[in-house]
Amino acid sequence: MRSRIVAVAIAAAAAAVVAACHHEPPEPVQVDAGSSSTTAASASSSPEDTASLDAGEADSGVKAVLHAFCSGAFSADEERMRGKCSTADFTLTQQMGRAAAGVCANDLAIALGRSRADFDADVGGKCVEMLHQKQLAQGSETDTLYQHAPCDRVLTGLQPEGQPCRFSVECKDGLACVGYKVGVDGTCKKPPAANEACTLQPYGSLVNVAASALHHPACAAGAFCDGTTCQPRVASGKACSKSEACAPGLSCVMGKCGTRPGVGTACAASGDCAFGLWCDHAAGKCAAKRTDGQDCVSQDACKGRCDLPKKPDGHTAGKCLAVCGSG
């Protein structure tokens, strides 16, 4: 819908609300108010925005600070969007932003509840201020605000090497959490080398794998975690099954590591095309996304959204509709 960083995080949060908010195993946790150095962040929230935190009997002051940050971050671009969106689209944007803020506050509260991570409210305030001043362009399908300075530093791990962890974000910078299983803590370690055991457990739905890897790579340079073991990264032109396996800067395109091609290049799926394009299956080639009023049979074909028939069959065309100035 909207090619903005906050929109990606909102979409992730909306999916997460439906799918249980975050990937953490269902183990009880509580926020320890004394474990955080939180102070009032430069964001505001209204009573109707208050999130329901799945974090035990959290200290109300800590809850308020976390939700103030999250509400500020996920409503930062509302004024920019107000003039671009229809009333219905703007209302949906606000609703999704509130859902994202709830997931965000929930995830942060759980991190603080184990006394293994710290939320920096001063950095949180700078993050919100930056989002108010700057419209961040989306750079990938998984790009979120937590991958952009200063927002990437609102949460920092406290656990040194050799100490227990559940998520890598609980570890100090440069360390990964290895060996966690439900009910059994992992250990903060230097990122494992190729052929060594690794753990790929993203924290929450918004601090995703890519965001966590900025300061806590799952494997040492030249390797990636396949879920259990660090594997050597695949060079350009070599066979692959997913983009995470490819060398930095490359993606898995039609079964081989390489750069995602532009308009007119052969493709099998939209992930085979440069970000922002889609794979026109009828032509079998990467194409620019379609604009308002053009025919479509899939959502990824449009800059905005595809208004499909009530009973889509994959063949009967709908119409692309602009969403919040998307074209």
Describe the structure in brief:
The chain is an alpha+beta fold and 327 residues long.
Provide keyphrases for this structure.
three-stranded antiparallel β-sheet, 6 helices, alpha+beta
Structure notes:
With 327 residues, this protein is α+β, with helices and mostly antiparallel strands. It has a domain at 5-152. It contains 6 helices and 14 strands. The longest helix has 27 residues, at 87-113. The chain starts with a helix and ends in a 6-residue tail after the last strand. Residues 7-58 have low confidence and may be disordered.
| Helix and strand run | HHHHEHEEEEHEEEEEEEEE
Q: What ranges have pLDDT less than 50 throughout 5 or more consecutive residues?
A: 7-58
Helix content: 10-25%
Largest sheet: 3 strands, antiparallel
Strand content: 5-15%
| Mean pLDDT, all residues | 82
**Helix-strand makeup class:** alpha+beta
- What is the overall shape? flat
Strand order of the largest sheet: 3-5-4
